[in-house]
Predict the 3D structure of the following.
Amino acid sequence: MANKTKAVMTSLIVVIVILAAILIYALVIKPAVGSYVYNQQLSAYNQAQGDFLNAMLVQLQQQGYISIPVGNQTLYLAQAQPQQQGTTPAEPAQ
């Protein structure tokens, strides 16, 4: 009878330890890992966005325009040249 009681106690302790480990994982470890992954993704996204804009500015300064490949075509962006004040556009011929 003592061996049976000891076996039941041991199995209950094992079950309690397993359930405690599951709770610790679900309530502590998983949220911590998820938060870390989210922060790393956000940091990488912000870094990529900054790198992209800096590359666009460098290309604009060096070439005067930006070329962006879109599918099998290329989109060109150029600096706007504002009109000087005091000048009027030419009237269309009639």
